[in-house]
Amino acid sequence: MAKLIYSATASLDGFIAGPGGDMSWLTEHIGGEDPTADRVLARTGAILVGRVTFGGDDPNAGTDAEGAFGGQYDGPVVVLTHRPPEHPPAGVEFATDLPTAVERAKALAGDRDVNILGADVAAQCLDAGLLDEVLMFFAPVLLGDGTPIFRRPGGMQVRLERLPGETEHWYRVVR
Predict the structure, then answer these.
(1) pLDDT per position in the chain (175 positions), as tens?
(2) CA 129 → CA 98, 102, 147, distances in Å?
């Protein structure tokens, strides 16, 4: 059964995007060999993303590395939005509610996992009790402002447990 994994690269002060959704800071911190990133990419059968992230800044725009996972991902994408386009791009499906989006992404993923891109969709999945794992990569930079890893009004605490044998920042959500 497909797991829902939220993976992202964040600054050391906890931002996955800079002010205004700027992702240019990430360019100098991605690339090169990373066995953990390779493992999560190999496990990814579908991507679930919010409309803001889907239409947002790509630090690799206009290069061979444009797109998810530095252009290495080539599979189904489900976008959660209240305003789906009349003519969706090839390989991209749109859903207007979370349960439908998750169900469709899991069906498309088959026996692999659904990788969530975007803090808002990840928080919605967490609040709905659907998020299984969190994988964070950290870049040696302080952004000072931007989109936090998680934005949870009221600050509800969520317990995580480290996945045995995995990287230092790969956790299972404790329910």
Answers:
(1) 789 999 999 999 999 999 988 888 887 877 778 888 889 899 999 999 998 888 766 665 666 655 666 656 788 999 999 999 888 888 899 999 999 999 999 999 999 999 999 999 999 999 999 999 999 999 999 999 999 999 877 878 899 999 988 877 999 999 8
(2) 12, 12, 22
Length of the chain: 175
* Interacting residues of 40 by C-beta distance below 8 A, sequence separation 6+: 5, 7, 113, 115, 135
Amino acid at 42: A
CB 71 within 8 A of CB 60: yes
Output the CA–CA distances (angstroms, integers) from residue 42 to 36, 95, 115, in the order listed.
Answer: 10, 25, 11
> What pTM does this model have?
0.89
